[in-house]
Amino acid sequence: MSLPPEKASELKQLIHQQLSKMDVHGRIREILAETIREELAPDQQHLSTEDLIKALRRRGIIDDVMKELHFVTDSVEQELPSSPKQPICFDRQSTLKKSDGTRMADSTTMLSISDPIHMVLIKTDIFGETTLVASYFLEWRSVLGSENGVTSLTVELMGVGTESKVSVGILNIKLEMYPPLNQTLSQEVVNTQLALERQKTAEKERLFLVYAKQWWREYLQIRPSHNSRLVKIFAQDENGINRPVCSYVKPLRAGRLLDTPRQAARFVNVLGYERAPVIGGGGKQEQWCTLLAFLCRNKGDCEDHANLLCSLLLGYGLEAFVCVGTKAKGVPHAWVMTCGTDGTITFWESLTGHRYIHKPTNPDEPPVAEQPKPLYPYRTIGCVFNHQMFLGNCQPSDAVETCVFDLNDESKWKPMSEEAIKSVCAPGATTSLPPFPPLCASTIDASVTSNEIEMQLRLLVSEHRKDLGLTTVWEDQLSYLLSPALASYEFERTTSISAGNEEFQDAIRRAVPDGHTFKGFPIHFVYRNARRAFATCLRSPFCEEIICCRGDQVRLAVRVRVFTYPESACAVWIMFACKYRSVL
After folding, report:
1. What pairing do the DSSP bridges indicate for beta strands 320-327 and 378-385?
2. How many domains are there within the chain?
3. Which domain holds residue 39?
4. Per-residue model confidence as pLDDT tens digits over 339-367
5. Which helix (H) or strand (E) holds 573?
6. How does pLDDT run across 201-227, given as a tens digit for each residue?
7. CB 348 within 8 A of CB 335
8. Where do the CEP76 C2 domain residues begin and end (predicted)?
């Protein structure tokens, strides 16, 4: 049993605040100096942990700290999916207790924790572009049977995708239990437990595969044409391992980093889009990344975006599903669907953040009847799934515009057994992926980064105009007036509500004298490379016209606004503008 990441983070913050409030660090430093000066021999330079603890306890500091910390076990029990007969609480030394509340989690209890440590290796070039090099699941429990709770391991890291069989290097790892266990297990016990788990996992996977084959045969018996539908039961991860698609989705709470489902959709949208690399010609290389690998490299394919968005929407309490189908020209695609309590079906495009309300057309209606025209880009749909359910579309047509999304109607959607899915995808199952990591706050300073990109763009524009034999005069006030427009554009992307344009337009009218012309060009990026952004802008004839503006009293302006999101993702808005005297 372990605390959820959100609770662990809150607990750390609470303890840190209390330690700072009581100036415990300062008092420890004083005791260290005093103890070394008074209690140790002049020739003894090393102060052991036991010496320090004794000194702290003798002066009553540990008691003072623990008296100020109050833990309410009832609220913890509500957050954890554990029995109320096994509360989690803390003793006076702030160590984790379990079961009867008289001891720390022992080695036997820790041996039952089957979640591996997920390690991801990322390569970042000088331009900030990231590449996924390796993804490795480390079985850490060998340390439970090692002497003194310390062990060293050597693991071989393999490549990803098409290079999953190619070694990329050797990693030396040292594992140490802290605090040390009171009693270690024999290596034989640890090895026996791991062998039993592997056997149990293999049996569960075998049974699920047998069930999935039977389900697929039944699905094809409904209608032979189902064989051509995109019904995705398994998908390969970055290591080339086949996993049930339901294991890629789990409810994910964003803490205080994202406030609304639409803001979550915007966050997923600004993560970069990149198809899995393929060697040679042929079809698309399949690679569904685990969440940690996706977040570490900050980019992925449409399936990665859809899985993350679905997980976040489930965390917000919505009934969300990943949809697998096609868009225009039969290109395979994945997006997200939510089902409202009133029956409203909403499609969420994870690559753009757009939302579409689905209103099915009735093919049996007479031609004169007015049918709603779909605004979404999706053409067909083969299946939908989340962390608990998998349903195959068994309606006569798999066209999205005619589909009815009554998922409880088994004549339209053939479900898989939820128990079968749970056996291999439920949290804690040895076959499932480890718990999703909590999202990390952005490390980017939006103001500093915005200013840096803006200065770089000014230099690039000036050099470009100089090559054309043109002088460049910047107007700072006009640049500043562009800020509200950029904020309005990002607000509209996040909420689908347009606001603030009236004030921006009024300010521009006042800033541009009579007889002058104003032109502006806004553009949006999800990266912070100024030179790359400038090259992209020059490919737009309208933007090039502004940057290369010739005329009387030409004044140029550029404004950059960086909006930060979790995992250091960002939306970068740039607006180039110019004003000049019109000559008839």
Report:
1. antiparallel
2. 4
3. 17-68
4. 999 989 999 999 999 999 988 776 666 65
5. strand 570-581
6. 899 999 999 999 999 999 999 988 899
7. yes
8. 96-182
One domain, residues 523 and 465: yes
Whether residue 145 is found in the same domain as residue 56: no
CATH of the domain at 549: 3.40.33.10
7 is written with which tokens? 């609770």
Sign of CA dihedral 118, 290, 245, 309: positive
Distance of alpha carbon 117 from alpha carbon 8, whole angstroms? 17
Q: Which CATH number fits the domain that encloses residue 334?
A: 3.10.620
Strand 299-300 and strand 272-273: pairing? parallel
Same domain, 221 and 307: yes
Question: What is the Cα–Cα distance from 215 to 208, expressed in whole angstroms?
Answer: 10
Among 190, 215, 250, the domain-final residue is 190
Q: Which pTM was predicted?
A: 0.78
Residue 434 lies in a domain: no
Q: Which two tokens stand for residue 243?
A: 């996993």
pLDDT value for 75: 34
* 252: three-class secondary structure by DSSP: coil
Q: Do 497 and 379 lie in a common domain?
A: no
Residue given tokens 């266990």 in the structure block? 181
Residue 260 and residue 330 in one domain: yes
- 462, 499: one domain: yes
Same domain membership, residue 570 and residue 510: yes
C-alpha radius of gyration, the chain, whole number? 30
Distance CA 235, CA 306 (A): 14
Cα–Cα distance measured from residue 119 to residue 136, given in angstroms and rounded to the nearest whole number: 5
DSSP helix/strand/coil, 80: coil
441-447 long-range contacts, CB within 8 A, separation 24+: 441/257, 441/566, 442/564, 442/565, 442/566, 442/567, 442/568, 442/569, 442/570, 443/568, 444/528, 444/562, 444/564, 444/568, 444/570, 446/561, 446/562, 446/563, 446/564, 446/570
